[in-house]
Amino acid sequence: MTFFKKKAGKLSRQTAESFLATFTILLESGFSLQESLHVMLRSGQYDSSVIQSQISELSQGQRLAQAMKNVHLTPSEINQLYLAETHGNLVDTLRRMVDYQSLFNKQKQLLYKTILYPALLLLFVFSALFGMRSFLLPQLLASGMIDGHHWGIQLVEQAPIILLIGILISVVLLLLTQSVFSRKTAIAKAEFLSRIPLFGSVYRCWQTSFFALEWGKLFRQGLETNQIILCMKETNKATLIQELASVLEQTLVQGGKLTEQLEQYHFLTPEFALIVFQGEVKGRLGDELFVYSQLLSERVFQRVEKAIQWIQPVIFLFVALLIVGIYAAMFLPIYGNIQGVIE
């Protein structure tokens, strides 16, 4: 008799991405959901308890989105799976998720490589600053070559304290922001993020691309606006798509217009509401939203790549200014004293 049942583990994010890619390939090859999971179970590549749990839940009639709870997926990805089972384009949705993860990881690696060398150079500069303060500066002060009251010397002496205070203030502000942010609704968070300079425009395009894609697929399947909103409302609680669906449902119940409500949100592009309005009139809303989603996705990745290209020059410029500032703070007093002796 079994008294203790082994609890299914949870795949790490990296393993989850590999799991999703393999699962997608099997589905594209013609395997069913259950067959794909059985193949992956026999391969022994992934945690068997996770796959067995998924097979069990699917056998009980659970949705795939529910069965994937032991896979490290984001709430947005879970919502995509839920909606994919509604509009029927599950394989296409999985392929898009896998391709997005691959592209995101490439850009993340590019960002790391871009930042690594400037970060090491910055670390070297700060190490040199501390070394000058600890070894060179005391000798210069003892020799009388420099005036300890000079602003440059004072700056070098106080630099570690200033840096430490700056780090502490940054940490406190970060914790306070995180605490306040966690109590906000998903819509309030999205509104805030969409208004951040530079980042906000990219975030707005990304969110609009997601909504346009999912709505486009649902409209293509012949669902009406009310049905789509109900589908969105059944997704994960406290997510942006679920909260937005609740607000839109209330708007329609009160006799309001969908497009006017969409125009109020800063995390959606102004063109999105216009496309919804024109698409409803023309009767091709699904196709128009799908095309618009593709255009926005390309725009997002182009902007991210351009931003990454600018990061390294900006950091190098900051490091150069820091080096010049350190040397000026240390050696201007020396040059001043030498000039005074000559005169």
Strand fraction? under 5%
How do the SSEs run, as a string of H and E?
Answer: HHHHHHHHHHHHHH
| Total domain count | 2
Assembly form of the protein: single chain
Instruction: Please describe the biggest sheet, giving its number of strands, its sense, and whether it closes into a barrel.
Output: none
* Alpha plus pi helix count: 14
Task: Compute the CA-based radius of gyration.
Answer: 28 Å
Specify the structural class: mainly alpha
Q: Would you tell me the overall average pLDDT?
A: 82
Termini separation: 99 Å
Unreliable stretches: 1-7
Number of strands: 0
What helical percentage do the residues reach?
A: over 70%
The coarse silhouette is elongated
Protein name: Type II secretion system protein GspF domain-containing protein
Transmembrane segments: 115-135, 155-176, 314-335
Keywords: Cell membrane, Membrane, Transmembrane, Transmembrane helix
Subcellular location: Cell membrane
Task: Explain this structure.
It is built from 14 helices and no strands. The chain is mainly α and 343 residues long. The chain has two domains: 1-73, no CATH class; 75-342, no CATH class. The radius of gyration is 28 Å and the shape is elongated. The N and C termini lie far apart (99 Å). The model is unreliable at 1-7 (pLDDT under 50).
Key words describing this protein structure:
transmembrane helix; disordered N terminus; 343 residues; 80% helix; elongated; cell membrane; mainly alpha; 2 domains
